[in-house]
Amino acid sequence: MSIKLRERAGIVVMRAGRAFGIGTIRIPFGVLRGKKWQFTSSIPSCAFGTYEQHIATRLQGRLKAGSVFFDIGANVGYYTLFASTLVGDSGRVISFEPEPGNMQMLVEHTTINKCINVIPVQKALSDAPGIVRFDGTAHTMCKFSDDGNIEVECTTLDTFIQDSGISPDILKMDVEGAEVKALHGADSCLSEIRPEIVLSVHDGLLDECLGILSGYDYSIEQLSPDDLYRAPLEKKLVPRHPQMPDKGAIVLPMHHL
């Protein structure tokens, strides 16, 4: 089934859930098994614990107890809850989500699951601090737009890190076309802190994003047509066999794309 068909099917199931009054359920599968989730807050695969398995599998293999994870474009908190479970009480999850309705649902999800390691930040990340217009409604994929229906506060990744004193080990960025601006606002983070990155690319920005990250000596692995895993070259793992990469060897040279 294509992505568009899956999205349409998910919308139908969400609407049916609302019609039948389905509220909080327990996620039945995966890392989040047993966690509570508002069924109609997002597509059904989130409620089932099977959302974006190609990304979830990679994060599960990299996030450890005590890790610091930045969820940039956190929506209603699926990856926030996912990472919170994996990093444990000794780790931290910083969740950036500017849309008020999404943030409200994210906080609800972390509250009902008693997550004590999550810090919600109701801001967008861009290349400069300020106030911008945003297009979108609660629980949808929102994005910057000059004609947007709300105004949201922006900061940069470097500014947040400097002000908070919190640095990421791994970050996930899914910002609906604002990837280039967010990366431009992360110069110190990319050059000095050098987190591992899972990046979802939108609006034909793949080549531009690749150019930015390769300029910081990041290697690239393409997890799907729109999702990239990037790691600093110094974190590249040595394969156990030249023809059979170690299960954790998750970085590839650019020419393998």
Describe this structure in words.
The chain has 2 domains: 1-51; 53-256, 3-Layer(aba) Sandwich (Rossmann fold), CATH 3.40.50. The protein has 9 helices and 13 strands. The chain has helices at 3-19, 44-48, 53-62, 78-87, 100-112, 157-164, 179-184, 187-193, 206-214, and strands at residues 24-26, 36-38, 68-72, 92-96, 118-121, 124-125, 130-135, 143-144, 150-155, 170-173, 196-200, 218-224, 227-232. The strands form 3 sheets. It has a 7-stranded mixed sheet with strand order 5-4-3-10-11-13-12, with helices on both faces. A 4-stranded mixed sheet has the order 6-9-7-8. The longest helix has 17 residues, at 3-19.
Break the fold down into its secondary structure elements and pairings:
Elements: H1 3-19, E1 24-26, E2 36-38, H2 44-48, H3 53-62, E3 68-72, H4 78-87, E4 92-96, H5 100-112, E5 118-121, E6 124-125, E7 130-135, E8 143-144, E9 150-155, H6 157-164, E10 170-173, H7 179-184, H8 187-193, E11 196-200, H9 206-214, E12 218-224, E13 227-232
Parallel strand pairs: 3-4, 3-10, 4-5, 6-9, 10-11
Antiparallel strand pairs: 1-2, 7-8, 7-9, 11-13, 12-13
